[in-house]
Amino acid sequence: DFLTRVFGSAPAALAADPANAVTNESVVGISMAIACVFSLILCLFSRKSLKVTGRQAWQLGVFGAGGLTATMLLLTYSYKFVTPGAALILNFVYPVIVLVISSLFFKERFSPLRTAALVIAIVGILLISGLLASGKSLGAALASEGVADPTPGIVLALLSAAAYALYFLAGRHASYFGLDTGVCNVYITGFSAVLCFAVAAFSGRLMLPRTAFIWLMLLGEGTLGFIIGLRLLLKGIKLLGSAAASAFSASSSSSA
């Protein structure tokens, strides 16, 4: 699962080796734990206060870590029922959710620039996926090979989109909005690691990598993805607002 998620399709030489198998829950949990440790070291080195209120703590855990963890795990679970490309398309409705909720409940302006970024994101994902040119029915285009009913995968992917929308909205409107992004990262990655390890243990899928290559990949994912990437994302949400940040995040992903 991990190799497929990183490379699109697992390299034959690596996929053939059972020693490289790692469950998704363990991948995310270990990567988040690595990110939490390094984020904590950076905060201590720069003498940033890690003090938060009780309200900020539970919102960082539920909205921040919960939203981010649910996004990644639900999306990978959906791959059992729909193709990864189709799951990503469904997941990319998260900017629509953010735009609607932020406009209706938080009075964020629905500007032409945000709308353009959202349109670019949706069109880009559809073109990349080939769904528009496939000529298949929606069900046939979405379903993974050997899966008769893609409905569970569609539901899981949409729930993943809702969870990611929650993460964007909370980054702008939750009580931890004013906290330093590095401090937020310590709590979000720490809570996320705990959540992933709990899910893995409860489902009997908790495991450690058995090769140096996988440890190296997890180290890269933890540092580049969950330290640098998450901090930049949180900063973008604070500066642009949840609606604009989600739209530009989706458009940059589709253009990449």
Explain what you see:
By secondary structure, this protein is mainly α. Helix content is 74%, strand content 0%. It has 12 helices and no strands. The protein has helices spanning 2-7, 12-15, 24-45, 54-78, 84-91, 94-105, 112-129, 138-142, 151-173, 181-203, 212-240, 242-255. α5 runs antiparallel to α7 (112-129) and α7 (112-129) runs parallel beside α12 (242-255).
Task: Name the descriptors.
74% helix; disordered N terminus; mainly alpha; 12 helices; 256 residues; 0% strand
Helix/strand/pairing category:
mainly alpha
Q: Helix content range of the residues, please?
A: over 70%
H/E order of the elements?
A: HHHHHHHHHHHH
Number of helices: 12
What distance lies between the first and last C-alpha atoms, to the nearest angstrom? 22 Å
What's the pLDDT, averaged over the residues? 81
- Segments where pLDDT lies below 50 for 5+ residues? 1-16
What is the compact description of this entry?
The chain has 256 residues and is mainly α. The chain contains 12 helices and no strands.
SSE blueprint and pairings:
Elements: H1 2-7, H2 12-15, H3 24-45, H4 54-78, H5 84-91, H6 94-105, H7 112-129, H8 138-142, H9 151-173, H10 181-203, H11 212-240, H12 242-255
